Automatic annotation (TrEMBL):
Top-rank EC class of the record's enzyme: oxidoreductase
One Pfam family hit: Aldedh
Entry protein name: aldehyde dehydrogenase (NAD(+))
Gene3D superfamilies found in the cross-reference section: Aldehyde Dehydrogenase, Chain A, domain 1, Aldehyde Dehydrogenase, Chain A, domain 2
Lineage: Eukaryota, Viridiplantae, Streptophyta, Embryophyta, Tracheophyta
Length: 427
């Protein structure tokens, strides 16, 4: 069977040998949000957003491209230049954001269910994320009236001061692994400052951005202040990054795309860009560590959110004296991990986001094994199983003893973005 996008499917629902649980939510919003209204894409095109459990279509979503980005930026520009948002008192802006936070709380279950459905993360985790987003919105609301300039001591009879003003139209491009926290981190601060926003959510997870943005308008946001354009990176994303009338861009995603986005911003209007990119973080276990505790912490550091986490502890370095014990215990812990339907109680880990990501992870595992790593646990062909790798190539270990960073195995260098724990020995 093929995914509609043409990718081969792994039919995870069959692997999970359970009928997928029906998510307790309906999809209400699938259009672009421009100038406070839901509208179709100018091209009339749509794309499918898929259930990561099964590859089945959740909804057809309006597919924004350059023309829609133009419409959204024009609405945001008008809202910034002529609308009330940057002109109202900071206290008034704060009240809108606080009302939004209350609405998030009221719709907590609905938003969490939609997020778990679209992203594959356990429903329980999505609930925690929505509470976190609610809190973030209150935090940002609190900042609205506390953004102060400085009075600077001047030499001579001068008065010197700094004044912070909203920059204008802010563009945001976000990834699929934490769709709502990413939304909050981009939209919250920009709105609190009085900017207007055009946001492009990830094509894998467009649904919750549309739902919560509707709530933001219900909370009293004036038209055009926030515009949401679902669509693909090289079309909608690139159009936003290179737009001449976007004053600032905030991007979170892969390092590779970050470089493209920075280039597009540079070659257009030199807009300032904030980049939050990929990672390959070490988790170091010294010889005097409590091994059981270290195993549990290292497990969480890597396997959390299906391993789809920019800050994952994805290089686990363990001292040689406790290495074998650690590997055995880490393996046991990984195999105990409860992997399955995100809507089933007790599930610690859902499916990977899509087949592309799944296949990328399998390629890394294969490359690890080919370059001398030992596959300690996990089913090689299942995206939903926890997988532990321990590289035991003696040549590599010698290199590690001298210098970790000379390690040239791909699995020890690249961000895998999946549930693959590489356990490296050091002395
Ligand atoms: P990605 O770079 O493929 O996509 C991120 C966003 O960029 C998506 O909205 C995508 O549509 C858009 N995009 C893709 N190509 C584009 C282009 N040519 N021009 C403009 N926009 C484009 O990343 P991903 O696979 O969705 O997310 C995973 C990556 O994100 C990982 O590397 C992860 O580490 C990183 N990430 C970083 C953080 C952080 O805070 N540092 C947080 C979460 C994820």
């Amino acid at each position: 069977m093929l995914f509609p996008s043409g990718k081969t499917t792994t039919n995870l629902s069959k692997r999970m040998s359970e009928v997928p649980i029906k998510p307790p939510v309906e999809v209400k919003y699938t259009q672009l949000l421009i100038d406070g209204k839901f509208v179709d894409a100018a091209s009339g095109k749509t794309f499918q957003t898929l259930d990561p459990r099964t590859g089945e279509v959740i909804a057809n979503v309006a597919e924004g491209d350059a023309e829609d980005i133009n419409r959204a930026v024009a609405a945001a520009r008008k809202a910034f230049d002529e609308g009330p948002w940057p002109r109202m008192t900071a206290y008034e802006r704060q009240k809108v954001l606080l009302r939004f936070a209350n609405l998030l709380e009221q719709h907590n279950d609905e938003i969490s269910a939609l997020e778990a459905w679209d992203s594959g993360k356990p429903y329980q985790n999505a609930l925690i994320e929505v509470s976190m987003v609610t809190r973030l919105m209150r935090y940002n609301a609190g900042w609205a009236d506390k953004i102060h300039g400085l009075t600077v001591p001047a030499d001579g009879p001068f008065h010197m001061q700094t004044l912070y003003e909203p920059i204008g139209v802010a563009g945001g491009i976000i990834p699929w692994n934490f769709p709502l926290p990413m939304y909050a981190w981009k939209v919250g601060p920009a709105l609190a400052c009085g900017c207007t926003v055009v946001l492009k959510p990830a094509e894998q997870t467009p649904l919750t951005a549309l739902l919560v943005s509707k709530l933001l308008y219900e909370a009293g946001l004036p038209p055009g202040v926030l515009n949401v354009i679902p669509g693909y990176g090289p079309t909608a994303g690139a159009a936003l990054a290179s737009h001449m009338d976007v004053d600032k861009l905030a991007f979170t995603g892969s390092t590779e795309t970050g470089k493209i986005v920075l280039d597009l911003a540079t070659k257009s209007n030199l807009k300032p860009v904030t980049l939050e990119l990929g990672g390959k973080s070490p988790f170091i276990v010294c010889e005097d560590a409590d091994v059981d505790k270290a195993v549990e912490l290292a497990h969480m550091a890597l396997f959390f959110n299906q391993g789809e986490c920019c800050a994952a502890g994805s290089r686990t370095f363990v001292h040689e004296r406790i290495y074998d014990e650690f590997v055995q215990k880490a393996k046991q812990r990984a195999m105990k991990r409860s992997v399955g339907d995100p809507f089933k109680e007790g599930t610690e880990q859902g499916p990977q986001i899509d087949n592309e990501q799944f296949n990328k992870i399998l390629k890394y595992i294969k490359s690890g094994v080919e370059s001398g790593a030992t596959l300690e646990s996990g089913e090689k062909d299942s995206a939903t199983r926890a997988i532990t790798l321990s590289p035991q190539c003696s040549q590599m270990l010698r290199q590690l003893t001298v210098n970790f960073y000379k390690d040239d195995m791909l699995i020890a260098k690249d961000e895998i973005f999946g549930p693959v724990q590489t356990i490296l020995k050091f002395k």
